[in-house]
Design goal:
It is a single chain. The chain has three domains: about 180 residues, Rossmann fold, CATH 3.40.50; about 100 residues, N-(1-d-carboxylethyl)-l-norvaline Dehydrogenase, domain 2 (Orthogonal Bundle); about 150 residues, Thiol Ester Dehydrase, Chain A (Roll), CATH 3.10.129. About 40% of the residues lie in helices and about 20% in strands. It has 16 helices and 14 strands. The protein has an eight-stranded mixed sheet, sandwiched between helices. Strands 9, 10, 11, 12, 13 and 14 form a six-stranded antiparallel sheet that branches. Strand 7, helix 6 and strand 8 form a beta-alpha-beta unit. Helix 1 crosses helix 2, helix 9 crosses helix 10 and helix 12 crosses helix 13. It is globular. The mean pLDDT is about 95. Bound molecules: 1,4-dihydronicotinamide adenine dinucleotide (NAI) and ligand L46V6VHR. It comes from Rhizobium leguminosarum bv. trifolii (strain WSM2304). One of its GO terms (biological process) is carnitine metabolic process.
Length: about 500
């Protein structure tokens, strides 16, 4: 799969900033041009949000962050980029001017994506000398967490450009959908616009407040949409007879007055003031930054829940996240691991994710086992037991765990785990993991585990091969010089 080697972002506002963060966290260098005097601060805040979110989203090893450079001219930013993303304000004249300037200075084979929410690519490419490389790459806010990009070609966009654009998205954790025909606002914004129009009428006509309207979405179909969209949801709503029954039952409603969709509400001063006031009341003093933080934590929780969907295989955006994490492990798992066997191996760095916090306001107990399990997995990769090894039919299985809870881990807290091998032989691997608060070093929990080397196809324990055993024994020998960790060998109910 071809990867982006260097990106240029023209415009670094809400969406440009999100693209910049997405690229940087995927390890891609980014050059930015944005004449706004505070562009550096604004982009910096988006990147900080993105870093916080990713620390909660995944324990997989992200590549080293790309290099960020602000350029004094557009030409300097685009000159050696192979993906250029235009995210300037939604005005056709401005976008055409900017795209023509990009076209004049970019490498001939650079891909040029526009973030436009609704302008036609054919209109955008009108003045370009090489229009075949221009396409719409319409993302969703926040770009660093929401993975979808609508890819739309114009009359002069080449099929090779569309193919190349689609191929470059999975390595940055995104999913491209190719929209077959160009149409204003593509697919997503067509749907959102329909909902938005109807919502404005409902407020205008005093049917409900903005808060009630949002509650109707977030407590009901909003939850459904994150996982099954519209058609699959309605298929289920048709009962055992499925979609055909659903259409037969609810088809006639389409002719009833259930919508004011074709009328455009007059956004006059009174309506703007009404919506503004109700929106202020709904926010209840929370700043935009605070709302962004809550939004990001919620999105992380939803993505993680979807990652466990369909019996652990992952579902929808969660499956995409799972696949992305597997590629991160395959690409960087081994390299980034610090290996100094003269002390316990620091193997997992993470932050307490929203989905991990329970009704007591701290990390819930089974998440400790998750972090300790991840620590054992990291140790196994280090000694050569990676996905290829497992697929070939051998692995280590955990047969016993003893976790002690000694402190608390709160939402967003940076934590890390360290592993000491207590003993190892041909089949057994006896480890002791310690979970620390990264800021203070305080020990929050420990886990002692016994793992057995298995032939997973035969379903029985077998001796580990010499290559794996050699690495295990080398670490175990170094760790034998360390003091036995406090708590090793303890059992539940033991007197101190
Ligand atoms: N805000 C949203 O929810 C979404 C917006 N979009 C699209 O993304 C594009 C950008 O929108 P936002 O980021 O929301 O706007 P924004 O107003 O937050 O950012 C636009 C940025 O472009 C910069 N800019 C203006 N003229 C420029 C030029 N000549 N060269 C370089 N930079 C220039 C501005 O200084 C500003 O930082 C629009 O096409 C919009 O339709 C797409 C998806 C969602
Ligand atoms: C409001 N908007 C049209 C700019 C929204 C989008 O384009 C996508 C989104 O993030 O909702």
């Amino acid at each position: 799969m071809t990867k982006i080697s260097k990106a240029a972002c023209i415009g670094g506002g809400v969406i440009g900033g999100g693209w910049i963060a997405r690229f940087l966290l995927a390890g891609i260098d980014v050059d930015v041009f944005d004449p706004h005097p505070e562009a550096g601060r604004i982009v910096g805040e988006v990147i900080a949000n993105a870093e916080k979110a990713y620390a909660m989203l995944t324990g997989a090893p992200l590549p080293p962050r790309g290099r960020l450079r602000f350029c004094p001219t557009l030409a300097e930013a685009v000159t050696d980029a192979d993906w250029i993303q235009e995210s300037v304000p939604e005005r056709l004249d401005l976008k055409r001017r900017v795209l023509t300037e990009i076209d004049a200075t970019a490498c001939p084979d650079a891909l040029i994506g526009s973030s436009t929410s609704g302008l036609l690519p054919t209109d955008l490419q009108r003045d370009m000398t090489h229009p075949e490389r221009l396409f719409v790459a319409h993302p969703y806010n926040p770009v660093y967490l929401l993975p979808l990009v609508e890819i739309v070609g114009g009359a002069k966009t080449s099929p090779a450009t569309i193919r190349a654009a689609m191929e470059r998205l999975p390595p940055i954790g995104m999913k491209g959908v190719h929209i077959a025909k160009e149409i204003e606002a593509f697919v997503g914004d067509r749907l959102l616009e329909a909902l938005w129009r109807e919502a404005l009428w409902l407020i205008h006509d005093d049917i409900c407040t903005v808060e009630t309207l949002d509650d109707v979405i977030r407590y009901s179909f909003g939850l459904r949409w994150a996982q099954m969209g519209l058609f699959q949801t309605y298929r289920i709503a048709g009962g055992e007879a499925g979609m055909r029954h659903f259409l037969a039952q609810f088809g006639p409603c389409l002719a009833w007055p259930w919508t004011k969709l074709t009328d455009v509400v007059d956004l006059d001063d009174a309506l703007i003031e009404k919506i503004g006031r109700q929106s202020d009341e709904q926010a209840d003093g929370l700043s935009i930054r605070a709302l962004e933080r809550i939004r990001d934590e919620n999105l992380v929780g939803i993505l993680q829940a979807l990652k466990g969907g369909d019996g652990g295989k992952g579902w929808g955006a969660g499956k995409l996240l799972k696949d992305f994490e597997q590629s991160l492990w395959a690409n960087g798992g081994g390299e980034t691991m610090p290996v100094d066997p003269s002390k316990p191996l620091r193997l997992v760095e993470t932050k307490v994710s929203p989905a991990w916090v329970d009704y007591n306001g701290h990390m819930t107990e089974h998440r400790y086992l998750q972090v300790f399990g991840d620590t054992s997995d990291a140790l196994l990769r280090l000694v050569g037991v990676d996905l290829a090894y497992v697929e070939a039919g051998h692995s280590y299985y955990t047969v016993e765990s003893h976790i002690r809870h000694l402190g608390e881990a709160k939402l967003g807290q940076a934590i890390h785990s360290a592993c000491q091998i207590l003993s190892a032989d041909e089949k057994r691997l006896h480890v002791f993991h310690t979970l620390h608060d990264t800021a203070t070093g305080e020990v929050i929990a420990t886990a002692e585990q016994m793992l057995l080397h298995v032939d997973s196809k035969a379903g029985k324990t077998v001796a580990a091969p010499a290559a794996v055993l050699g690495r295990v024994k080398a670490i175990a020998a170094a760790h034998a010089e360390l003091a036995l960790p406090e708590g090793a060998g303890r059992y539940v109910g033991q007197r101190r």
